[in-house]
Amino acid sequence: MHHAPVSRRDFLMAGGALVISVMVPGAVRTALGQTPVGGKPPLTPDELDSWIAVLPDGSVRAFFGKMDMGQGVDVAIGQIVADELDVAFERVDVVMGDTAFTCNQGGASGSTAIQNGAITLRYAASEARRVLLDRASQKLGAPVEKLIVQDGVVSVVGTPDRNVRYGDLIGGQYFQLKLEWNKRYGNPLVAKGQALPKKPSEYKVVGHSIPQGVVADKVYGKLRYVTDIKVEGMLHARVLRSPTAGCGPVTVDESSISSIPGARVIREKEFVAVVAEHEWDAVRAARALKVTWAPPCTPFPAMESLYDHIRQASVTGREAPVNQGDVEAALKSAHRVIDAEYQWPFQSHASMGPACAVADVRVDHATVWTGTQKPHFARDGVAKLIGLSPEKVRATWVPGPGSYGRNDAGDAALDAALLSKLTGKPVRVQYMRDEATGWDPKGPAGIYRGRAGLDAQGNVVAYDFFAKGFTRQDVATNESDPKDTLVGQLTGYPPKPTVIFQVPAEAYEFANKRCGWECVPPLLERASPLRTGHLRDPLGPETHFGSESFIDEIAHAAGADPVAFRLKYVKNPRHAAVIQAAADKAGWSRRPYPNPRRGKGNVMLGRGFSYTERNGTIVAVVADVEVDRRSGRVWAKRFTVAHDCGLIINPRGLELTIEGNVVMALSRTLFEEVKFDRERVLSVDWTSYPILEIQDAPEQIDIVLINRPDLPASGAGEPSTRTVPAAIANAIFDATGARIRRVPITPERVRAALARA
After folding, report:
1. Exposed, middle or buried: residue 398 (CB in 10 Å: 0-12, 13-18, 19+)?
2. Whole-model pTM?
3. How close are the terminal C-alpha atoms of the chain, in Å?
């Protein structure tokens, strides 16, 4: 059965829940047999109906052009909409990431779901309430200022029996109302009506800890993931990747899989795949197919010389966005100069499951089911690849194994679309473990050099911090253009990297301060398993591992307490308050640093501090660690996190998000490094790419939430990620007196550092 699009009219009239994986005409019935007044408004940001719908039973449906990656964003959006419309939270259903029903708000990206995405939902809900009150005023014969709303029931002040329900005012009908739109898509999109949103003092739902209902479905195996999508008549596919990076197929022996029922080869230029009616047959065919690949071209340097390669590589672009005073002159006249370099490796997304996607491409339209965090952009990329207009392609987001950036989900979606076009059948692409870890876009490797000058009294007179590494957008942040996907590059779309890196984000006020970066060329221009892209908090952990470790080294050289040193140079009161809050909660005292009792016994104890900012969110972290002298094992036993992201929507959801940040960043700091040789990536499974396991998780994470309802809500999905690595490294120094400047901080590197200390 072909899964054709469901009309928005039928969708609005349905009283039941959204079935995200299967949309079959006739399966969704109108609840009361009503026909919405007027035609269907276009799905554009300037239509109120693109954002809010009131169903016949008075419940509300909010259409959100982003999606949740595990932080409970849909819960927060539901809270915001419920507050603005004066309905119970339980009566708000949030539809996410389906291009048939939502506008492109940029997908999940940059911790912008609340910071950017919620703005229009708040405005739209506020405007919908204004329209509903106007209608109620006419129906009840009372001025708007004499009306109150309780759970979607509008009544006249003093005469509660004079009332009308939202469902009776508009249920199942369209608002047919224009909004003022800034004519931008993606994260910057903003649309608003005449109504002003409520003041924080009027919130009744925002600010409360409402749990994620989806967690129980995940725990009990009830949630449908993208891997569960099935379309009648679909083929299963496996894609073959070259054993040596950069080497295309020369010959393909299709007869080598002739014994496997229904299996056949699909080849388009350098893209090679097999399809079969049964998944195991596709797996067998992929293993059995004989392909002659071009001779190895050894595109990569030896792994042990990676950082030498970066130091010596030519520069494709540079910037110094922070440049105050005369740094070089101040360094020359300084009483003492501190100089240090920090190194960060390539890292994989290492999503818990390999990517999967299903595509059904027809002559005049196509449908894609994908776990990507940017389905609107996946739609655009698929459209370009298969030769349809974006309006003829529907991409439906279905939960996948997670991504936090640009992982392999986008590649799987475009693989499936091309294979569906070439076979004329729906196609399900499922990657294998080695493909997911080996071929996903990687977080970039880089080196970070800090130089600082101190006067005779230990004051900072110069600060210079420079990064050099691979761009964080060798492939773009989304798959809206085939050139940024493996299948696109293998079928003739030339890559076009964006040269971009990062400088530290903090508020240190040094009289002479310079921060800049340089980018180096990719190791392989096309279809590379070491192509770089966004990984959770793009370049945040890397940059601030270097910068906040270096701040700690300067403090030590100046003979200053690390917290007191930071407070001395951070004049911004909001930033200073976060630093102080973390120190207070952790019981930070001004004892000598590093720990004077380090080295006593085989288990050494230390604490470290770190502070950063990200797009308006300020975070400070104290890490308490144990270092085992004999094994070199580091256990980050306790973290204390102070977090200021402006207005807090859901406190418990925010705490859980911070905890997730801490654990993931801890894993990246202690364990994660992509290994490779001259020809290929060697990290292809959980043995060759280890991640944090339960015995290495923190014993305790204490969180101080600083709520600022007078400020807009800013992001929380990433900021604390960048703050963790340096806190760990600084704690190790406190415990051992050994400074470790390379990630991951493995037991071998700890033992080597201890031997040198």
Report:
1. buried
2. 0.94
3. 69
